[in-house]
Design goal:
Elements (H helix, E strand, L loop, with lengths): L2 H16 L5 E5 L2 E5 L10 E4 L12 E5 L8 H10 L5 E3 L5 H6 L9 E2 L13 H9 L2 E5 L5 E5 L2 E5 H7 L3 H12 L7 E5 L2 E5 L4 E5 L5 H6 L7 E6 L2 H8 L9 E4 L1 H7 L8 E4 L2 E5 L2 E6 L2 E7 L5 E5 L10 E2 L5 E4 L5 E3 L16 H13 L5 H35 L4 H11 L6 H33 L8 H7 L1 H20 L3
Parallel strand pairs: 3-4, 4-5, 5-6, 12-13, 13-14, 14-15, 19-20
Antiparallel strand pairs: 1-2, 2-3, 7-8, 8-9, 10-11, 10-21, 11-12, 16-17, 17-18, 18-19, 21-22
Helix pairs in contact: 1-11, 1-12, 12-13, 13-15
Length: about 500
């Protein structure tokens, strides 16, 4: 690593240490990366909140993931991430939902989930100076009872989830902004099936019945109307949590569920004030949603007095004349007529901000939505969307720049990285510099000794003949490269000891 790159690294770290608010990178609509590092000795110096496909190529640099289920994180996606994780990443959940999350994980993945941050910095125990520097730049994750959390660096709050959600154009906020206009597309006193959700629309409110196969992308693509939603019915924890993630105004929402699901659901702090167990939910007039274990349906009588059951479950047994809706179909409760949903469909919020297709999607959305939105409202949404996209792209470039310099630093020896730390903290020529270098050299000798012992053990194993005796000369000829490598390590260790600073 040349001098210019080292200089660049020092400048970047100093800047982030002096301006901690810049340590937050918004890398996607519902995904943030927080930089918690402070020196060339850092290992995996990033925390992730929320998920994006974008971070797949950077997972090895992430030490901790905060699972913000019901807000930024899809619980289904985070469970998949935990079970497929191969980089010793620690997944943090509030203590209240720790056992609930474990229920959905394979036992072999339980050790990956904790209620606290795991610090990957291991060198501070070798030196009082390193401990002092580490404490100076310490990061903490603060989990609150209301579901919010914050991250501090060097005693300053640099991230607050609730503030970020209120400020930024997240998925739930985007759906809310478009919702007031798209509700006119959905006819009153009807049932619509969309994305595995049955939405019952009345003149005063909407009710959502959550199926097992929630399709978030379809709901986002169809600008699902969230503003008039008053009741949510669900009998499965994960789809219920993931649907609520899409709701921006949830304080007036009432949730109805089964007894078993209620015990798990109530442990999540989602800003839902009313949660009840009920097997009969009044919808409109004499129409009710009935629940039998994992089966939801609406018993109906048509104009001829014939009893029918509008099915909202895959379980269709023991129902009278079941009425089954396909995706994007509408069922009118008064006339028993079916029709197709004529909603605005757009990929604008699903396309990656860095892809060139986003410009095409924006123009298509503008053309389609112009028939529904006023010119002023549409212009405001487009402007906020484009500003949000530009910010994400800028933050990605800053994040990628930081990752690149850390990638190159990792190829240096501990002593070389310690030299960079000394320069970053301006400790050249001080007693603190001597202590840091002395402790790092001791650590390197310890590491080298462990490597030598492993090689010796390897030689021992290789020289043990499985059958009979093997001549010493043959063993030496066969393992000459291992013996030479041991000798080289011993010589290097001696030179390090002789020439180290005093």
């Amino acid at each position: 690593m040349d001098g210019e790159k080292i200089k660049k690294f020092i400048q970047l770290v100093k800047m982030y240490n002096e301006e901690p608010n810049k340590r937050v990178f918004r890398v996607d609509r519902d995904c943030y990366i927080i930089f918690t590092g402070f020196s060339a000795l850092d290992e995996k110096p990033f925390i992730r909140i929320g998920y994006s496909r974008y971070i797949e190529k950077f997972k090895e640099y992430i030490s901790n993931v905060i699972i913000a289920a019901g807000y930024l994180s899809s619980l289904k996606e985070e469970i998949r991430q935990i079970e497929s994780e191969e980089h010793e990443t620690n997944f943090i959940v509030p203590e209240s939902i720790y056992n609930v999350v474990l229920k959905f994980l394979k036992p072999t993945s339980h050790h990956k989930v904790n209620v606290n941050v795991i610090d990957k910095q291991t060198l501070e125990d070798t030196s009082s100076v390193l401990r002092e520097i580490s404490q100076k730049y310490k990061s903490y994750v603060l989990l609150y009872d209301n579901g919010n959390f914050a991250i501090t660096f060097s005693g300053k709050k640099i991230f607050d989830m609730f503030s970020a959600i209120n400020r930024d154009l997240t998925t739930s906020k985007f759906l809310f902004l478009t919702s007031n206009k798209t509700t006119d597309i959905y006819p009153p006193e009807s049932v619509v099936k969309l994305g595995g959700i049955y939405t019952i629309l009345t003149s005063s409110e909407n009710i959502a019945v959550i199926g097992h196969k929630l399709d978030e992308n379809k709901l986002i693509r169809s600008l699902y109307p969230t503003s008039k939603l008053k009741k949510v019915v669900g009998n499965n924890v994960i789809p219920l949590i993931d649907f609520i993630r899409l709701l921006n105004n949830r304080s007036a929402i009432k949730v109805y569920t089964t007894k078993d699901v209620y015990e798990d659901f109530k442990k999540f702090s989602l800003g839902i004030k009313f949660v009840d167990v009920s097997d009969k939910i009044n919808v409109i007039k004499n129409i009710n949603i009935l629940s039998e274990k994992e089966k939801y349906y609406i018993p109906l009588k048509d104009n001829n007095g014939i009893e029918n059951d509008l099915v909202m479950s895959e379980n269709k047994e023991n129902l009278k004349n079941p009425i089954i809706l396909e995706e994007e179909e509408i069922f009118l409760l008064n006339t028993f007529a079916k029709g197709k949903l004529a909603a605005i469909t757009t990929d604008i919020f699903l396309i990656d901000p860095d892809e060139i297709e986003i410009e095409r999607a924006t123009k298509e959305f503008e053309a389609n939505a112009s028939k529904t939105f006023s010119r002023k409202t549409l212009a405001e949404i487009i402007r906020e969307f484009e500003n949000d996209t530009n910010r994400i792209i800028r933050d990605r470039r800053r994040f990628e720049e930081l990752v690149r310099v850390y990638e190159e630093i990792q190829y240096l020896s501990l002593s070389e990285r310690a030299d960079i730390l000394v320069k970053t903290e301006k400790l050249e020529g001080t007693e603190k510099e001597k202590e840091i270098k002395s402790s790092i050299e001791s650590k390197e000798r310890e590491t080298m000794s462990m490597k030598v012992n492993r090689i010796k053990e390897d030689i021992k194993l290789k020289t043990e003949a499985p059958k009979g005796k093997v001549k010493t000369r043959e063993l030496i000829l066969k393992n000459w490269w291992i013996i030479a490598l041991v000798g080289l390590f011993l010589v290097l260790g001696s030179l390090t000891f002789v020439f180290r600073d005093t």
